[in-house]
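Note to self: keep these together.
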Amino acid sequence: AAKMSASAPALQVIHTVASMRRLRSTFLDTVSLVPTMGMLHAGHMSLIRLAASQSRSVIVSIYANPTQFASAEECTTYPSTLKADVALLEKLDEVLRREGSLGRIEAVFAPTDREIYPFISDSTDFSTTSGRGSYITISPVLSQRLEGADQPHHFIGVATVCMKLFNVVRPHKAVFGEKDFQQTLVVKRLVDDLFLDIEIVVGETVREEDGLAVSSRNVYLGNGRTRKVATVLWRALCAGARAFYGEGEVVREKILERCREEALNEQMVQERMDLSQRAMFKVLYFEMSDLGSLEDVEEVDTSKGALLSGAIRMLPLETVAENEGAGLRNGTDTIRLIDSIVLKPSNTQLVEEV
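Structure:
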């Protein structure tokens, strides 16, 4: 059943599929869904504002989907911040009211695992290969490159949970962030292939002042050396983008080489530092891909553009001083970070250096 917060104005926090469907049946105008995994931040707020500018009713889902995590451990240790998230949403909804926005946040859909995956008997077994229940399989070209290369079941989990959320909420529009560019393509393919009457809206990436993409994972970075070095991913992508925009470079390997050089330079700087001062990282990939299919682009067609993307893994700190701001689990995590830049067709502005 729907549960009301004691504070006013209170958002409905709905935990069951049946309750969400009952509420949805009362909406007579346009509905937008903003799917999240919680730990809400400025990027989510931007997406919700975008949804409220296009629809009368906005539903924010908060669900840490177990089938898209790389491991059961990563899933079980993912922080649950529902109370704080709902408080943020209530504040934003009040701002939307004062601003006279077209839409308002109608409810938070925060289902349990049992509601979303009723066929799972063992709460630790959410493997997409377990043979229980139904899953959505996405084209390997879209789902098994880039983020799917070493997480082959990730986008099966993403597509499956999106299909479930779409069926429960029945939105006219669903809003996703451009930072997870591959995810947006997977969801668009899902909608197109299965003839879902939903418009996928993509909001721009929100960045910190130093260029780091706002992400729920950033709480693991802290505010010290790991957080500072993590900007290398954005800096590396910008180096590649400057070669394209500033020098007219279109050859894949030459653009990617600029990215790798920037990352390697930072790695060398860190290697020369004392253990107590450095933050090491591993480059997972830099790629240049077609904006629609994600297939490799050997040379950018300037009439079409391309996607320049990358991922790094921040490694655990080798020594951690007391109170040094080493993040949610005090520097013991490996933290996967992803980012991308859309190399736009001709007549685009030079990417600013960070």
